Amino acid sequence: MSFQFNATGDFSRLVSLPTPEIPAATSSVSPSFDTHGTTVIAVKYKDGVLNVADRRATAGMAIMYDRSEKILPLDDHTLVSISGSFAKAVEIARFLRHSFKYYSRSQLQPMSLEGKLSEMTKALVQNLPMALQGVGTFVPVLSAWDVQNDEGRIYAFDPMGARFESTDFSAAGSGSAPIRGSFDYITRTKGPFAEMDLQTALRECLVLLDIAADLDAATGGYAKILPSAKAVTREGILNLDEAQLQAVLDQMRDGLAPQTVNIKAERVEADVVSN
Amino acid sequence: MYSPYDFNQSIAHRAEYVEERLKAGMPVIGISFDNGVLLFTIKRTQRKVFEIYDQMMYSAIGNQADVEAVRLASIDFAHQEGFSRSPDDVSIQRLVGFAISPPLKRAFGDPMTTPNVLRALFAEIGATPEKDQFFVLNYDGEFSNHVKFAVAGGSDAVEDAMRESLAAHDDVPDLQTALSRAREAVRAGLRGRLSDEDEDSGEESGDALEKALEKGEIEAAILERNTPRESKFRLLTTSEVS
After folding, report:
1. Residue A20 lies in a domain
2. How many domains are contained in chain B?
3. Domain extent at residue A233
């Protein structure tokens, strides 16, 4: 054999993520060095799946960073919103982005949605030994445009890699628990998210995130830094920029949800908005 | 025992074996244009121009399996490097010079293997047309780098004819002009091939390119200079190349 190559398109055979051996904890660990991302929300609206997230990252009681980006495009039809260990989640997102690209370039066909979900599960399973030691646990919410069935899909995962498909919405992170019931309240009183247009869905999500920030110390509010919002649709990834979000939030200053929101979403290429 | 004479003989035989098989290959042309880099060729049924990495593409003539092996090995190296360091550390010079050329040379020199039948053209896009780079890689591991344009053909006669045709222009073309120059060069190259073979086909050689297009079709891809995407590669559509 003159050439060694990886015919399966499996990127994990090519590179391995650093997996440090962590000594078993004798007392309960307080991983104050493990920076965590907090609240992410995903809802299915009329044309796709909208993701909204605050931008705070915390380590223990300290706010480490107020401009973290937790909604990461993996490709033109896949978004992942991350909560939990920042170091791990960002590394895994980078791994997945490369692995999808690697697959489509080497195999000359895009990876199927099922394939992408398995990749995410594998990454979580690989992270399990660390998670069991009390560091590096992260919980992703994956939003995708299902090209085959032409519809938006939301998948939540647990730290062991179990996959839970959500019919309407999903949320993760420390601020997600206090607002859990509010999703149902909105659905019952205002109708399902799936019937809302982007503007309406965005307004509801921003209110939800605002409530999460009120009830959870680790979730960032809007006072200084705006949250981030992206959507995945048939046409690709939409990015809702700061100026647009600001306009919506200005109307929320009085604590009331605005009646109407005018927002223009621009399509962006998946690999442009991430870094 | 194996004597130096046998070694020379065996290398010569291997080279002859490969050259004979490359002869029929439809040439590949690379041209640097104002907004990108173009690779242009004629394919039969299989795709011939491939993306290697964000800013790199590749096309080759030769045995399908060998073309694929080099393509996959290149993609492996580029992605490994791009992930463990950064995409900025993936360069055509490292790829061809260190990852691909040495194993090719090893395989060619090993009398117990079948030599790879391939002549490849790698292209990398730079910030400006002067920074665009082409690497032509031969089956024996030998490679050369070029700016402005590069060719990979089945024989010296074909390559010389194409080079001559392309060297006639000194400016940086736009895509349309680059495409027509590529067509012109392929035409010249195929004419070179005809003159290489026996002249009996010279009679109806009217347009060598048109004749080639009866059995195949143009395949062309570009790396775009000004796209905001990380991935610069794009296959041109049939309407764009016709």
Report:
1. no
2. 1
3. 37-266
Q: For residue B47, which residues of chain A lie inside 8 Å, CB to CB? A: 108
Give chain B's mean pLDDT: 91
- Using the beta-carbon criterion (under 8 Å), do B103 and A3 form an inter-chain contact? yes
| Contact criterion met (CB below 8 Å) for A124 and A157 | yes
Selected for mutation to probe chain A from B54, B59, B83 (highest A CB count within 10 Å) is: B83
Cα–Cα distances (Å) from A5 to A8, A55, A111, B215, in that order, read: 9, 41, 19, 32
- CATH number of the domain bearing residue B127: 3.60.20.10
Q: Which of residues 80-99 of A touch B (CB under 8 A)?
A: 94-95, 98
B158 in a domain, yes or no? Answer: yes
Q: How many domains does chain A have?
A: 1
> Is B79 close to A271, i.e. CB distance below 8 A?
no
Is A60 inside a domain boundary? yes
Q: Is there a contact between B76 and A15 if contact means CB atoms under 8 Å apart?
A: no
Write the pLDDT tens digit of every residue in A209-262.
999 999 998 898 887 889 999 999 999 999 998 887 887 787 776 656 556 666
Contacts of B72 in chain A (CB under 8 A): 3, 5-7, 106
CATH number at residue A147: 3.60.20.10
Residues in chain B whose Cβ is within 8 Å of chain A: 47, 50-53, 69-70, 72-73, 75-76, 79-80, 82-84, 103-104, 106-107, 110, 113, 116, 228-231
A106 and B76: CB-CB below 8 Å?
yes
**Does residue A183 sit within a domain?**
yes
Interface TM-score (ipTM) > 0.95: no
A220 occurs within a structural domain = yes
| Domain span including residue B102 | 23-241
In terms of pTM, does the model score above 0.80? yes
**pLDDT(A147) > 50:** yes
- CA B69 to chain A, closest CA, distance in angstroms equals 6
